[in-house]
Design a protein that fits this description.
The complex is a heterodimer.
Chain A lengths: L7 H8 L12 H9 L1 H18 L9 H20 L4 H62 L1
Helix pairs in contact in A: 1-3, 2-3
Chain B lengths: L7 H10 L3 H20 L2 H18 L10 H23 L25 H19 L3 H13 L3 H8 L3 H21 L4
Classes of the chains: A mainly alpha, B mainly alpha.
């Protein structure tokens, strides 16, 4: 049994066992190996000690009640502010940029085409919109049919 | 914890209906900051992680379902999972590295029970704590997160995997390699 490979994974798992059962969680063959192999025993003992040292690090930070209170209040304020704003800042910036861009484009068109020309273009685009959407719909449908046929 | 403080379950129930969130978070803040400090090894970054974690806790509090009979521990575990996610997101967003000189103020990490000790005892404990922090420093951020969740909070590998966004096997391998690296480092420092 002592000639079996060193069961390092099993030993680490047992040494770092959360229930602190130690070697009790090892399977019989691994326990037999541990009893026979001095190298593994040392490895296991060192890991157990390392775990105890790790556990000696205090979990809680020493903070005063005032410090805790201030940090918590700040988090609550941010959370409340975020919740009261339905749209995120990035979205707001995006919408504003898009609106300004469209306004700029229309202003440019008015200048280039003159008001009368701009109105004609607008009217034409509005009148053409349903036909444009219908043409896009037909084109995509034909393309899908062609793909089905070739398959 | 003083006997005059309300039971965690009562506090949690109140936070669902009224505005007792502040008391609830104040209760877990020292543990959360302690975890974040060990995870990030950077006091400022730890405070940032805590802030973001608390914001996410407040936002998602209604969705949290505490385990029956152990509301406080399941709440702490939930907070730790969120903190780990926050730290992971921060690591992804920035390639911020932790300068060695930014070792957390060890005096801040001493538990309240030690405050009555003599200056010499506190100094010795501080030196020991500093050495332990340095030993944790050899672990990568991902290893440290898995190591801490397993060692201090008893997370299963599946839970660690979910919190760290990796498969269960990877979580196990991270804990194992972290345990080995930690042992090697303690041995090197003559702390075993």
């Amino acid at each position: 049994m002592e000639n079996m490979r060193h069961p390092l994974d099993e030993l680490i798992e047992a040494a770092w066992d959360v229930s602190d059962a130690g070697a009790g969680t090892l399977t019989a063959p691994v326990r037999e190996h541990l009893e026979a192999c001095a190298e593994c025993r040392r490895f296991f003992a060192e890991l157990r000690s390392a775990r105890l040292v790790a556990l000696s690090i205090p979990l809680e930070a020493k903070v005063t009640r005032e410090e805790s209170g201030a940090a918590v209040k700040q988090a609550i304020q941010v959370a409340v502010a975020a919740a009261s704003s339905g749209v995120s800042t990035d979205e707001k910036i995006g919408f504003a940029t898009m609106a300004l861009g469209l306004l700029g484009l229309q202003t440019l068109l008015v200048i280039v085409l003159k008001p009368a020309g701009f109105l004609i273009l607008e009217g034409l685009l509005n009148w053409m919109a349903p036909f444009t959407f219908y043409a896009i719909f037909r084109a995509s449908r034909r393309s899908a049919e062609r793909e089905e046929g070739s398959a | 914890m003083g006997s005059s403080e309300p039971a965690f379950e009562d506090l949690f129930r109140a936070s669902q209906s009224a505005g007792a969130v502040e008391a609830l978070l104040s209760r877990v803040y020292p543990a959360l900051l302690g975890y974040a400090t060990r995870l990030t090894l950077d006091k400022d970054l730890a405070e940032d992680v805590c802030q973001e974690t608390m914001i996410r806790i407040i936002t998602n509090l209604k969705r949290f379902r505490p385990a029956a009979g152990r509301a406080e521990s399941s709440f702490r575990a939930w907070a730790v999972t969120i903190a780990t996610n926050v730290y992971r997101d921060m690591l992804r967003k920035s390639s911020r590295t932790v300068p060695v000189e930014q070792v957390p103020d060890d005096a801040n990490l001493l538990p309240a029970s030690r405050r009555s000790e003599t200056a010499e005892e506190i100094a010795l404990e501080s030196i020991r704590q500093e050495a332990l922090f340095d030993a944790l420093r050899v672990l990568s951020g991902q290893q440290r997160a898995a190591f801490m969740m397993r060692t201090y909070y008893g997370f299963t590998y599946r839970e660690i995997g979910e919190a760290c966004g990796c498969p269960e096997g990877t979580a196990k391998s991270r804990v194992h390699s972290a345990a080995l690296a930690f042992r090697d480092e303690l041995e090197k420092r003559g702390m075993l």
